[in-house]
């Protein structure tokens, strides 16, 4: 999860998030190069005495500053489109979870476990245990296995919400009357936090998301839900 004074992105816990971090670094290097060249040109303009004022034609320069931006856009667009298509792939998920947004809590349904349904509310400050995170911990966590493709079916019962877990690279809108889906495969066990990322009313800041990811063997051994 994020920490105070953090500058970069959160550590990746899924292959998609690893790809997003790589693309972020790739685009950032291109931006740095463009900024350096622009600042260098401005510096030369301000410090160099222009002695030749008769140049009226510069075909080579015009070609360069037309072709070079096009090449840069292609270098940014190709990996971006690749990741976009990767996020939409659904390859035979091992488990399907349905998430329903409400004002202001989440309802989860394990469709592969006999319709197991429970609500997930933010823990009030008076109920926090030592080590719990204020405004982020919930009474019922979503327990999922790692190293297995998980499909999330996301919708809403009232207003627009957004189911987002940054460390997994997930952010999907919950829209009333529409069922959106996203998939992920977690690579490390742990507890990962997210929040609703769509302004949904007065208590928008108080509907966190908590995923508890455990090894697949432990998940298959028996009930891991403490409701």
Automatic annotation (TrEMBL):
Coiled coil start-end: none
BP-aspect Gene Ontology terms: electron transport chain
Catalyzed reactions per annotation: 4 Fe(II)-[cytochrome c] + O2 + 8 H(+)(in) = 4 Fe(III)-[cytochrome c] + 2 H2O + 4 H(+)(out)
Topology of the protein relative to the lipid bilayer: Multi-pass membrane protein
Cofactor note: Binds a copper A center.
PROSITE patterns: COX2, COX2_CUA, COX2_TM
Task of the protein: Component of the cytochrome c oxidase, the last enzyme in the mitochondrial electron transport chain which drives oxidative phosphorylation. The respiratory chain contains 3 multisubunit complexes succinate dehydrogenase (complex II, CII), ubiquinol-cytochrome c oxidoreductase (cytochrome b-c1 complex, complex III, CIII) and cytochrome c oxidase (complex IV, CIV), that cooperate to transfer electrons derived from NADH and succinate to molecular oxygen, creating an electrochemical gradient over the inner membrane that drives transmembrane transport and the ATP synthase.
Annotated compartments: Mitochondrion inner membrane
A Pfam family the protein falls into: COX2
PANTHER family: CYTOCHROME C OXIDASE SUBUNIT 2, CYTOCHROME C OXIDASE, SUBUNIT II
Domain Cytochrome oxidase subunit II copper A binding: 92-225
Keywords, in A-Z order: Copper, Electron transport, Magnesium, Membrane, Metal-binding, Mitochondrion, Mitochondrion inner membrane, Respiratory chain, Translocase, Transmembrane, Transmembrane helix, Transport
Any one GO cellular component localisation term in the record: mitochondrial inner membrane
Membrane-spanning ranges: 27-46, 66-85
Cofactor(s) the record lists: Cu cation
One example GO MF annotation: copper ion binding
Identification of the protein by name: Cytochrome c oxidase subunit 2
Keyword Transmembrane: yes
Gene from which this protein is expressed: COX2
The organism's place on the tree of life at top rank: Eukaryota
Protein family membership: Belongs to the cytochrome c oxidase subunit 2 family.
Database matches in Gene3D superfamilies: 1.10.287.90, Cupredoxins - blue copper proteins
């Amino acid at each position: 999860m994020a920490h105070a004074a953090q500058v970069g992105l959160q550590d990746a816990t899924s292959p998609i998030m690893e790809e997003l971090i790589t693309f972020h670094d790739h685009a950032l290097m291109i931006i740095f190069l463009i900024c350096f060249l622009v600042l260098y040109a401005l510096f030369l303009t301000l410090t160099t005495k222009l002695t030749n004022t008769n140049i009226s034609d510069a075909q080579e320069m015009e070609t360069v500053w037309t072709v070079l931006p096009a090449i840069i856009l292609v270098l940014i667009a190709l990996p971006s489109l690749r990741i976009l298509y990767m996020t939409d792939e659904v390859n035979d998920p091992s488990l399907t979870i349905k998430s329903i947004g409400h004002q202001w809590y989440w309802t989860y349904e394990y469709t592969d476990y006999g319709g197991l349904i429970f609500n997930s509310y933010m823990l009030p400050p008076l109920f926090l245990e030592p080590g719990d995170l204020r405004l982020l911990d919930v009474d019922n966590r979503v327990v999922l296995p790692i190293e297995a493709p998980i499909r999330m079916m996301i919708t809403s019962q009232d207003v627009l919400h957004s189911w987002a877990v940054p460390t997994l690279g997930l952010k999907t809108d919950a829209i009333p009357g529409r069922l959106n889906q996203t998939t992920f495969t977690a690579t490390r066990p742990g507890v990962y936090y997210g929040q609703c990322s769509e302004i949904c009313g007065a208590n928008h800041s108080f509907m966190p998301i908590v995923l508890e990811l455990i090894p697949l063997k432990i998940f298959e051994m028996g009930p891991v839900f403490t409701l």
